[in-house]
Amino acid sequence: MFQVRIHGRGGQGVVSAAELLSVAAFKENKHAQAVPNFGSERMGAPVMAFCRVSDKPIRLREPVMEPDALIIQDPTLLNQVDLFHGLSEKGYILINSTKSFHELGIEEFVTKFPKDHLTTIKATDLALQHVGRPVPNAPMLGGLAALTGVFTLEALAEAIREKFPGQVGEANIAAITEAYESTKSIMNN
Amino acid sequence: MLQQVEGSHGIAEAVALCRPEVISAYPITPQTHIVEDLGAMVKRGDLGNARFMTVESEFGAMSAAIGSSATGARTYTATSSQGMLFMAEAVYNASGLGLPIVMTVGNRAIGAPINIWNDHTDSMSMRDSGWIQLYAQSNQEALDLHIQAFRLAEAVSCPVMVCVDGFILTHAYERVDIPEQKQVDEYLPSFQPRQVLDPNRPISIGAMVGPEAFTEVRYLEHHKQLEALKIIPTLQKEFHEKFGRDSGGLVSGYRTEDADTLIVALGSVNGTIQDVVDEMREDGVLIGSVSICSFRPFPLAALREVLKKAKRVIMLEKSFAVGLGGVVDPNIRMTLRGISKPIYNIIAGLGGRAITKKSLHEVFDKAIKDELEGTHFLDLQWDIVNKEIEREKQQPRSGPIAENILRDIGSVASDIA
After folding, report:
1. Do residues B147 and B290 both lie within one domain?
2. Which of A41, A119, A184, B263 is most exposed, with the fewest beta carbons within 10 Å of its own?
3. What range does the domain containing A25 cover?
4. Same structural domain for residues B197 and B277?
């Protein structure tokens, strides 16, 4: 089982991101479960969503307690939410930021995780550039696919096309593709 | 067809396949997506001549459902939480009149303190209303139970609630198999009402009944539920034959055969419990679990058959009768009347408190050692509780409990030091 926890704020598409991940996994004949963990929905409030992927049917209904991968769509949550809770030592961390881990002040903290499991992605910039709205969710998924190899770019694109047919979908696919490729190139360097 | 969809969408598709003629509903979280989806289907013309009635309240929703069902229309509605309370009077009327309405309950806590998250307080508040209540373990079962519910409701002329855990199921995306229309048509014949309001053949429904006949009318409501006890397993069997899936039934056991310890629960928490059962079995613990699907009618005989051989029974429930203990627990004690064995009651998951495998392992271990108190509150933060009790002792005007406790808990930032 591979478990992803996505942190962000209301309006950043956190819940949609988990849903898209689950659909992408389903497209590859895997079992997947996406669940939001949100409160009284309002713009800007901290929001969490989970996605589990497995080769077997998933019966577990607890929140993701020990994620294999963390997507942090808004680094300002660092001081508000216990973002890294339960993350395994082999975990992946993706943060939406133009800054480095050093500039975010967590360089020392992340040394306990494998170096090639860590990346920051300028997802908001990519979303603005391709979609015209500051919604970082889709580019972060592109980064996740590149970093973990658990999800393919093709399946993600198919899931996005299904949920957002037409130009909005295509723009998002362009954004995740760029995020995927730039993450890959960082990993190769 | 296999699809990866939100639980609410799966339920809406199932209801649509049952060819409802009237849907009346008022939105309330977490049920809203179901009726929004159905509303969109009606607007697109996917449901033929079906009418979607937007009403002014939940009381209006159930009242409209009573009216439409009484004219012989297959009728559906959905609600949650305070919405259920607001329609309470009409809920009793629907069952008292014997109208086979199907209602989804997107299970949610009841305030105050206001809380939108999942527990079973809402449907349990109506457990004695005369409605049949079925609880779904998964989104697939939620979908399937709706198809069975219309058939069951119409077979006994009694309304049915399909109880689905709010957020945990209603908002979860997972794989479901959505049946073909032809299959559902073959399983669910058209509605043949026992009583119809028809201007061409006028009758009245809803007479005032005094002491001379009230007990008899009530008993006949009970009789319908006893009939339902016999019909539910048949519907389950026929469903399996038609759709190839095990869904519904009175109770379903998991690794119960040689179990010393049996956990009983309702709804989606059964999935987590089954995972824990598997893990404990690997360590050689003889443990199993039982999901109660039909809570009303309560399957005394079927459940007794499953539970009688176990050394101890643990009733884990998401409902709580303040001043007593569990709501379901006394039903278990009635089930096992005359058989002596420890019965432990665990109150868990209130107001959306996560029920984790870790906590379940700990509490089941304790129960197996017979070290658990009679009523146990899973993961209750005693320090927080005791602090407030102390505050109330010390300060004559100690203030509102909810606000005090939230202040005590504070918020938790990332541990990056």
Report:
1. no
2. A41
3. 2-188
4. no
Cross-strand partners of B165 = B107
Does any CB of chain A come closer than 8 Å to the CB of residue B139? Answer: no
Structure tokens at B347: 């109150």
Residue B21 and residue B111 in one domain: yes
Number of domains into which chain B is organized: 2
pLDDT at site A110: 94
Which residues, at least 6 apart from A58, have a Cβ–Cβ distance to it below 8 Å?
Answer: A1, A31, A32, A33, A52, B174, B271
Number of structural domains chain A divides into: 1
Nearest CA to A25 among A178, A183, A145, A181?
Answer: A145
C-alpha to C-alpha distance for B226 and B296, rounded to whole angstroms:
10
User: What's the pLDDT at B410?
Assistant: 82
Q: Which residues of A touch B275 (CB under 8 A)?
A: 59-60
Q: What is the pLDDT of residue B167?
A: 96
Distances (CA, A) of B105 to A36, B22, B335: 19, 17, 26
Q: Torsion-angle region of residue A149: left (phi > 0), alpha (psi -120 to 50) or beta? A: left
Of B206, B217, B98, B235, the C-alpha closest to B156 is B98
d(C-alpha B189, C-alpha A71), whole Å? 49
Residue A78: its pLDDT value, please? 87
Task: Look up the CATH number of the domain holding residue B292.
Answer: 3.40.50.920
Quick one: B227 and B295 in the same domain?
A: no
Pairing outcome for strands A118-121 and B261-265: unpaired
Which residues, listed in sequence order, are joined to residue B52 by a DSSP beta bridge? Answer: B23
Contact assessment for residue A160 and residue A176, using Cβ atoms and an 8 Å cutoff:
yes
Q: If we measure between CA atoms, which residue out of B263, B300, B293 comes closest to residue B378?
A: B263
Token couple for B163:
């109880």
Q: Would an 8 Å CB–CB cutoff place B173 in contact with chain A?
A: yes
pTM of the model: 0.97
- The pLDDT value recorded for residue B412 is 67
CB-based contacts of A180, cutoff 8 Å, min separation 6: A142, A143, A145, A146, A153
Which of B226, B243, B260 terminates a domain? The answer is B243
CATH of the domain at A163: 3.40.920.10
Distance CA B357, CA A124 (A): 36
Between CA B181 and CA A66 the distance in angstroms is 41
Instruction: Give the residues of chain B that fall short of pLDDT 70.
Output: 411-413, 415-417
In chain A, residues with a C-beta closer than 8 Å to the C-beta of B411 are 80-81
The ipTM value here is: 0.94
> From the first residue on, what is the mean pLDDT of each consecutive set of 10 residues in chain A (189 residues)?
96 95 98 85 84 98 96 92 92 96 94 95 97 95 97 97 94 97 89
**Domain-embedded: residue B8:** yes
Parent domain of B260: 251-377
Do B205 and B284 reside in the same domain of the chain?
Answer: no
Cβ-contact B105, B169 below 8 angstroms: no
Q: What angle do CA B388, B394, B395 make, to 5 degrees?
A: 85
Cross-chain residue pair B272–A78, CB shorter than 8 Å: no
The beta-carbon neighbor of B272 closest among A23, A31, A62 is A62
B270 HSE (CA, 13 A, CB side): 26
Nearest alpha-carbon partner for A50 in A32, A36, A30, A62: A36
Find the residue in A nearest to B360 (Cα).
A62
Residue B95 sits in the same domain as residue B219: yes
